[in-house]
# Entry
Amino acid sequence: MIRRRLAILVSGRGSNMDAILRAAENPDYPLVPVVVVSNRAGAPALEKARRHGIEAIHLKGGPTFEDRLVRVLEKRGVEVVALAGFMKLLRGAMLERFADRILNIHPSLLPSFPGLDAQAQAFEHGVRVSGCTVHLVDSGMDTGPILGQRCVDISSCHNEKEVASAILEQEHVLYPDILARFAMNLYRTEGRRTTEVKTGPHGQDFLALHFGVGTDPGQRDVAVSACLLGIPCRYAGDSRAHEGVLRHVEGRRVLPVCPEVLGGMWTPRAPMIVHGPTGPGMWKDGAQAISEDGENRTQALLKGAERAAGLVSRSGVREVILKERSPSCGLHRIHTPQGLKDGHGAFAEILKNMSVTLRTEEDFPSSRTENLD
Ligand code: GRF
# Structure
């Protein structure tokens, strides 16, 4: 995959920048950040960027700012520009040179509350729902065509600070995701209206399936190969493993995705159990995936989960069916030595921050349940 070269422009603390840099740590993310530029000397974002190992530059304002900025970006082969809390209107040289390739995030549902202090504007106005918007940058203030939005219920917020932090949480999810889709050329713009090409490279009627679900042993070899090659299959619907899921996928194009396979530990794969803390942050808190034969598979599993998420993102999959309870994919519960515990798998954790619909086999009614584990 060719990763497009990204510059991030900042002026302040850089939490959105941080979210983008984190997403880009995954080698399957379709953008590679090459430089961060701030128009403010002491912007904390600069130091944060350096800690990520990214070149971070302060460019003084002034009449030649845009020309100098264009030179900095051109020299580094930048193709896409993300404004992340960049408190300056771009015009002239930048807009010409990077026309339709500059994105911005704004903390409201545009066109409501453009400009400064959008969160305070929303709070004062008394709206119940606000959110954030990622849009293309034109010469106006927060006026360019909209690429994506996320709603946030702010009805229980007591002040603008609470509004800002509720929205910020969603910004960090929305921005890296929209940027990735933009880099993959999934948007078509006609005037102000942008539509997203719903089809991935594999076509429209398409979903990903963690294929511990719904595959008879005979089909598994096919699924393993398809997963490794990243090609979709059409389910014949004759597996008896879980009829609810099979009814849903029958005749549709399905990309079998398995973090264990992509982490290089399939054949023969001994079942794994999660040891250590459970709960949403369990992988960061040091959970270990140990196979029944005692081998520590944690690193392989994490690598496989990242690869699987990359596959989902690149192929334009909109829906992922996870195998509930598995250490990689369990969405609500996973297997531990003490039995089932609350928590989600490494793959599920990454997917939760992507714009895909997540389901588990438990969402599909079935008269047969004996193979659910
Ligand atoms: C964010 O609320 C963003 O929407 C707006 O400026 C703020 C920047 O915050 N454009 P951060 O620097 O990304 O933390």
About this structure: The pocket of 5-O-phosphono-beta-D-ribofuranosylamine is lined by residues 12-17, 84-85, 105-107, 168, 171 (CB under 6 Å).
